[in-house]
Write a structure and sequence with these properties.
This protein is an all-alpha fold and 111 residues long. Helix content is 78%, strand content 0%. Helix 2 crosses helix 3.
């Protein structure tokens, strides 16, 4: 049986309430079929939402575990790496002077 757009828009509570009270109320077979179809549609939506939510929770838990492991690894690496720049100073100064001289030559050639 095909459900029209108007029938599909019944509020969930109303559809379920009407279905539960269908035996007490005088409803036609067609009305009961429409309500049952609406309840099936709503249940399918609820099932999809629950499935999506479980997947999202699993993904987020995996992300948290990954970030904790990465953080622990980075903390352990920091303790292993030590940089001593006392011997680099003269070399860096020479590189900077060479760079300035090259810039000066280029500037002189352009003028």
């Amino acid at each position: 049986m095909e459900i029209t757009k108007q029938q599909e828009r019944l509020p969930r509570g109303l559809a379920i309430g009407l279905l539960r009270n269908a035996r007490k109320t005088i409803l036609s077979k067609k009305q009961i079929d429409i309500l049952e179809a609406r309840v099936r549609i709503l249940q399918a939506r609820i099932d999809r939402i629950e499935s999506d939510l479980k997947s999202t929770i699993s993904l987020e838990e995996a992300k948290v575990a990954y970030l904790k492991a990465k953080t622990a690894r980075l903390k352990s690496i920091e303790k292993m790496i030590k940089v001593d720049s006392s011997e680099l100073h003269p070399h860096i100064e020479k590189i900077m002077w060479d760079l300035f001289q090259a810039i000066q030559k280029k500037s002189d050639e352009d003028n």
